[in-house]
Design brief:
single chain, about 900 residues, alpha/beta, four-stranded antiparallel sheet, four-stranded mixed sheet, 30 strands, about 45% helix, about 15% strand, elongated, RNA-binding
Amino acid sequence: MKFTPSYEPDKFESDIYNAWEQNGFFRPKAEDSEKFYSIVMPPPNANGNLHIGHGLTIALEDSLIRFHRLRGDKTWYVPGADHAGFETWVVYERALEKLGHSRFEYSRDELYSQVWDFVEEQRGNMELQVRALGASCSWEDLTFTLDENVVSRVYKTFEKMWNDGFIYRGEKLVNYCPKHETAFADIEVEHIDEPGFLWDLKYEIAPENTDSKNSSTPDFIVVSTTRPETLFGDEAVAVNPNDPRYKNIIGKKVKLPLTDREIPIIPDEHADPTYGSGAVKITPAHDFDDFEVGERHSLEKLRVISDNGHMLPICGERYSGLTTEECRKQVLKDLKSEGLLLGKKKITHAVAHCYKCGTVIEPTLKEQWFIDTEKLASLAISHLEKNEISFHPASKQKVLINYLKNLKDWNISRQIPWGIPIPMFKKSAEISSGTGEEVKNDSPDWIFDTRVELKEIEVAGVKYIRDEDTFDTWFSSSHWPIVCTDWTEAHGSPFYPLNVMETGADILFAWVARMIMMGLYVTGEVPFKSVYLHGLVLDEHGKKMSKSKGNVINPMSLVAKYGSDAFRLGILRGRSAGMSQAFSEQSVLSGRNLCNKLWNISRLIDSWVEDAKTPDAEETIPRPKTAYTTFNPGEDWICREIDSLKKSVEKNMKSYRFSEAVEEIYSTIWDKYADWFLESQKLYKNLPLLKATLEDILIIAHPFMPFVTEAIWQALSWTDGFLIAESWPSSLDFDPISAEEFERTKLVVSEIRRLNTVLKAQNPHYKIPPILFGDDSLVSENADLICALSKAPGISPTDGSPRGIRLALEGREVYLDVDEKTVASHRESLESHILSIGRELDALNARMTNPNYVKKAPAHLVEETRQGIKEKEALISRLKLELEVIK
RNA sequence: GGACUCUUAGCUCAGUUGGCUAGAGCGUUUCUUUGACGUAGAAAAGGUCAGAGGUUCGAGUCCUCUAGAGUCCACCA
């Protein structure tokens, strides 16, 4: 294969991916069961497109997987697809609406199969995109969140919990979206501070209860509320027991406005004497606080708002059927006309919204299934406190423990058809067919049964009807590490626990917390050894991406434009764990440039290898490792640099510092390998070394830029097989003295270049002069290289009569052979150089004059400082001497 | 109200147990039509590390406070 002048990713990527997949590199062999390195992908929504967060997830996870694969671990990366219960449901419901249909036209079972088809149609799309990002995952093991084994595992857990008494049926207030007509967990509700009003309503004290003998007793009480329309459900008015204003009316009754009901005045700490009027109406069926108050005082829970947000008939003909908003207006109008509306105050308060449609959440009284989370949470906390899971960033461990300590019971019922049916059946009031016997009183109200395909079942002569609700998706998702690894009670799984769970920091509570609780509950072991949480990917201005703002960056369009590797490099660059950070196309562009650079490096080396080939001198190249020897300047140095790159990538990957790893690869390839080593090799062309070092670089870079490195591997004339299956390089041999010598040679070249640039700036007609060197073995031994790298027209010894400008480098005797005029004009820059060295010297001297430093600092530091002072002093005196000469 | 995070170059961020002259990318300026790459090469400018105090021989790094930014949790009628 021939190298084109620039790397064109779209010509290679899909072929390479297919070749990898078809050759089975993504799947660990069955017999290799000893040392697995396993990661499961947080399942992207089956019916959706990947967003930038998935792009980041795959870049992170796949680089870990590829790194470990090259290191020789049996890696196992499981892709997934999420039925995404509610998310998908919203999309589907919208599609139905567009066709002029409503979900209420269909039965639950009909809806379920419709959505199944809908998702099936869309699913391939997501999988193609995961492939395009280069994810080296085991497709045969793809798990869909509604797969048979997932459902059966979820049912098993539910049954265990039911038997353990962790599950209870409760009538409680739940967060309810009147638009979607389903309940949510607390975590799915968004609290937003909004302006609103606090109205003062006049509740008259019922006349028959007024103590006529005591005229000091007021005949009404003012209650403050933000939701006047709920007054129909009021069951009491609460005042603080310590509030002197109301002490003597506790226990009396008030007339509920617009109705003919009377409700008591009760004492409760919940009433804050400093807020509003200090008296608060209690609506147990429609407010979380009031619910609690109601429980304390055994109040009725009267529902006055329907599931879809309309007033119920109990509110009276005038209000029944109105939306809550309409009803509020009407109530306020009526109260006003009756003189019962006393005041209105602007306030800001937190209002709960549906996280999907933004509709105001209506706390609604519902019978639902709840998980008693107390034992689950404390189990999780005890393992977390033993540091059985390492967190990146570490701070999230504390955050998670704090969350678990305050965890409330978990409502797992959802009133949407798209999801896993809850396997619970309720005893029917009807007498079961045939027997004619009465229902036995001792038969349970609810029974667990997995025959969810049936609407009703019969057990011991009793008829039971299926609960129509489905599970909260997080209930099944919390089993993800268990189900993906096929963990069983009998055999466990060689992949469980996972090595790493990598996901977004935003679902630490919703998902990670629940996986830990469930993993421990089901298997007794934590589900993963490490957690890496990435932050949000923000737009280039640091703003959250959103469709409405129009600042969404689509990963696929970046892949199409710059290539998959460029995207991966761009998204990993400068990103650290847990932080929400800006991302721009610019970083992808620089990733693309690196790919092209590496491509051209390889192109050059390959052309040298090809040029050297003569028909009769066909080399026999030992694979897998090219043997090499170092002869020339820079060769030991590049071996040292690659060796240190290798070690630092190992270290960074171990501590999940992806960005640092990428940065080091970038600078080694570009600044070291291309700009110094290859430039030097233009003189020497040590082919075995060039080949060996290029191979190492390709392997080390492969986890981060898999496609271009493989494309190069395939294009090189001497390599065979696949790069993905190569093994991580062993340590390179090098002579450290020779490496250090090249470092000093670089300094000479840089200084010559810098001087030339400065002098050129002073005089546009300046031409790069020849180089002279005195008694300087480093320069004489590297003369050709220095000459070539600095583009000087020539280099020669001074023969004892130095002239021109001497380089200000310690221990060097190198001159630029320039004319007298140029020498004189250089004086100024020399003076400023002396000043800056002087400042550094002062700093070092200050340290040494401090007796405590000399006494307490480590000896090697003190010695270094002493050495530094000596060198700087020598340099200054020499520079001063040069200044004398220039005069 | 509670918890957590952040503040380092024009921008986005590194800086691991305190230790040599605080780094990178992008951007900016100057130079280079050298046959791997202009998606390039060479060079340069740019930082009182938010502020104050403390610990220390030594603080971007540890502690306290202040100011600012952000995120999450929470029932404020």
